[in-house]
UniProtKB/TrEMBL annotation:
Any GO MF annotation of the entry: pantothenate kinase activity
Organism: Bosea lupini
Stored Gene3D superfamilies: P-loop containing nucleotide triphosphate hydrolases
Top-level lineage group: Bacteria
Name this protein carries in UniProt: Pantothenate kinase
Amino acid sequence: MNLEAWNTGGIMDQRPLAAPSAPDLVSPYRSFSRDEWAHLRADAPLTLSVDDLTKLQSINDPISLDEIVAIYLPLSRLLSLYVAATQGLFKATQRFLMAEAEVKVPYVIGVAGSVAVGKSTTARVLKALLSRWPNTPKVELVTTDGFLLPNAELERRGLMQRKGFPESYDSAAILRFLSDVKAGKRAVSAPVYSHLVYDVVPGEQVTVERPDILILEGLNVLQASRLPKDGTVTPIVSDFFDFSVYLDADENDLHRWYVNRFMTLRQTAFRDPRSFFRKYAEIGEDEALSIAEKLWTGINLPNLRENIVPTRQRASLILTKGASHRIQQVALRRL
């Protein structure tokens, strides 16, 4: 599939971006209200139905067609422009180097943000929209959950109460995966994580085969590493990104969404006999609520403050949600 051909079919409309409502010459971002951003959709077509959205959204993360039209269609249009420009830059570099044509290099998009903010829904919506571009590019979605260390290893290292923190991941495996994908290897595999059993599934893998676009979703994908004192090379996950999205929300809203999701899961997934959290479906509501609060304050809130929020300003795009999960503001990094 020729990525350069994506500039056909209307989605690549070249009209200039609207000016932000309150330009800040100091900030590296241009900020847009919801209405200003929605105007940038231009003539990007709506390719998702209500039924599609029902399949794409996560528990307690409502999303409407209005949200798709106002937020995600403009983003899809922007990405179509960025992908075409990146391909042009790649070809220019090849000409400069007088090099023969190399294998296709995927465009990699990172999606980051807190637990319960709606990363999974955003990643799935993006995949659905991008794969419906005029020339139907091949879009793959991988989550970093599969790169968590197995529970047995976390127990051995005393990290079970820090699951989701940077040290609970096999960082070297993530970097190898992204390096192989960017190198254009034909088939690159990633481990699979089960939220039902709350662990990596032994022997199970998902294979990525030279996608046009790869979306990598996870809590800490924008995490920076500490500079080494000995001068050794230390690549980080975001080094492989062409574009990144950070889902942002007020801390109090994140707290409420997390607890509500936990209580909803008690009536659904937690009731499965195979569920790691089966015990929480069998206790009283007050006790379950108390446990959800402890999980938030003891694990998820510290991770949010120490490791996730500090990466927000490294994103190409920040989508800020209001209390109802509707995105109220968009901030696009200046080039």
